[in-house]
């Protein structure tokens, strides 16, 4: 079989690219290793920048998001028993973020592709990518125990951090990495959120985050050792620990309930350079990872896709390769700024046991400065709502 663009992976990056290309008459096939239910069962991001919201609008999948999503014009930072609001609207000239779960966005994209008769091929694991320097790369995938080949003009490697795309060019990639000495234990529960906005808490016992998926569903996290398993954290222990890391008012307002989902995620900063290898383009988590503290992972995947989609359109419609040639550089310039911001927020808010009392004092001084200085608050707000998509 032959198509114009072969897309590996049906995470937000792959689905969004497929949808945008399809709407513009560019034939593509998405190959996804896992089942549709498995992909929809992964609980991940919840915060969208307006640049990502605009792209979903362009992809004609924003209707439900605009009804069910929540607009947030600020976040709260908690430390030393008090909460301080960072007012995005005031500090950035009216900007805000959208709270809408990655699961919902994924479902909207999958539904739209299925309705148009071009759904991803699920349970189709890509095992080899060949001839990326020739005119027609070949992708081999395994489905129902059989191997199939598909060729295309371009390959989009949207297969996440553990995918085959980056691995297939391992000898040509330069990587930059920082691994953090802790993880996030996340709990999804059918309980009303503690506050109307997200609370990011710095505490001597470790970081905590109170987020949400709706006015009835909470998503909460606590920093935990990497050696922990979810079995170490029965619901009662989780809620007790979270309560201890919040200010008294929030702790008292907290409504607890059984967890619907519970998982531990490691924290990592990672960038692969470049992002283009002949006719193979890496996008999203396949090329970079940020710790979730700045809520940037999904948003970076969306901005990569915006650059890649525009570049492919330019190639197929106008016959120009300028966008494809600039892809890696355009993406990386934005990615490194999000890497810096996510690293900074992680460093500011988590407990780093090896930093000792001096490190802790510096953290508290910086938090104090951040919440008192308009200039410092503005820098946080500007990055959190998202730097321009191009
Ligand atoms: P994905 O979503 O990992 O999708 C990759 C897909 O590729 C498939 N695949 C293959 N398919 C075929 N053949 C192969 N050989 C394949 N190998 C892999 C996989 O099965 C998968 O379906 O990558 P994508 O599309 O780049 O999307 C990235 C985002 O999912 C990720 O950056 C965010 O979830 C990160 N993230 C957050 N981002 C935000 O912008 N805001 C947030 O609030 C936020 N919170 C989070 C997060 C990530 C978290 N975890 C668990 C990592 C919170 C958490 C806890
Ligand atoms: C989430 O709702 O899952 C979430 C929100 C903000 C973050 C990370 C995760 O920084």
Question: Structural class, from secondary structure content?
Answer: alpha+beta
CATH class of the domain at 5-50 and 60-69 and 101-176 and 268-345: Alpha Beta
| Cofactors, ions, other ligands | 8-demethyl-8-dimethylamino-flavin-adenine-dinucleotide, P-hydroxybenzoic acid
Spatial order of the strands forming the largest sheet = 6-5-12-13-14-11-15-18
Mean residue pLDDT: 97
Low-confidence stretches: none
Helix-residue proportion: 25-40%
Percent of sequence in beta strands: 25-35%
**Distance separating the two termini:** 35 Å
Q: Find the CATH superfamily of the domain at 5-50 and 60-69 and 101-176 and 268-345.
A: FAD/NAD(P)-binding domain
Q: What name is given to the CATH topology of the domain at 5-50 and 60-69 and 101-176 and 268-345?
A: FAD/NAD(P)-binding domain
The global form is: globular
Q: Count of helices?
A: 13
In the CATH hierarchy, the architecture of the domain at 5-50 and 60-69 and 101-176 and 268-345 is: 3-Layer(bba) Sandwich
What would you report as the Rg, rounded to the nearest angstrom?
A: 21 Å
Number of strands: 18
Describe the largest sheet.
Answer: 8 strands, mixed
């Amino acid at each position: 079989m032959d198509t114009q663009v072969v897309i590996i992976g049906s995470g937000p990056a792959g689905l969004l690219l497929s949808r945008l290309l399809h709407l513009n008459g560019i034939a593509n096939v998405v190959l996804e290793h896992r089942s549709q239910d498995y992909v929809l069962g992964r609980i991940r991001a919840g915060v969208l920048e307006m640049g990502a919201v605009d792209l979903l609008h362009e992809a004609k999948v924003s209707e439900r998001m605009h009804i069910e999503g929540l607009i947030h014009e600020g976040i709260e930072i908690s430390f030393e028993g008090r909460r301080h609001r960072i007012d995005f609207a005031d500090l950035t000239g009216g900007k805000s973020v959208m709270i809408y779960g990655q699961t919902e966005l994924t479902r909207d994209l999958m539904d739209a592709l299925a309705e148009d008769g071009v759904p991803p091929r699920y349970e189709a694991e890509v095992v080899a990518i060949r001839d990326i320097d020739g005119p027609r790369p070949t992708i081999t995938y395994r489905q129902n125990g059989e191997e199939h080949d598909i060729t295309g003009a371009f390959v989009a490697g949207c297969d996440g951090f553990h995918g085959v795309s980056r691995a297939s060019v391992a000898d040509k990639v330069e990587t930059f990495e920082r691994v953090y000495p802790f993880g996030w234990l996340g709990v999804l529960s059918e309980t009303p959120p503690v506050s109307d906005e997200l609370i990011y808490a710095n505490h001597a016992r470790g970081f905590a985050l109170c987020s949400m998926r709706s006015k009835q569903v909470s998503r909460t996290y606590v920093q935990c050792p990497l050696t922990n398993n979810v079995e170490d954290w029965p619901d009662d222990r989780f809620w007790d620990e979270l309560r201890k890391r919040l200010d008294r008012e929030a702790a008292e307002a907290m409504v607890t309930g059984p967890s619907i989902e519970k998982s531990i995620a490691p924290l990592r900063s990672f960038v692969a350079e470049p992002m283009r290898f002949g006719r193979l383009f890496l996008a999203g988590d396949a090329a970079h990872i940020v710790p979730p503290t700045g809520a940037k992972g999904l948003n970076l995947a969306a901005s990569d896709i915006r650059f890649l989609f525009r570049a492919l359109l330019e190639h197929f419609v106008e016959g120009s390769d300028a966008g494809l040639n600039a892809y890696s550089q355009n993406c990386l310039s934005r990615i490194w700024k999000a890497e810096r911001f996510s690293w900074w927020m992680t460093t500011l808010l988590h407990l780093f046991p090896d930093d000792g009392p001096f490190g802790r004092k510096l953290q508290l001084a910086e938090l104090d400065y951040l919440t008192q200085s308009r200039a410092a608050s503005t820098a946080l707000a500007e990055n959190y709502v998202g730097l321009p998509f191009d």
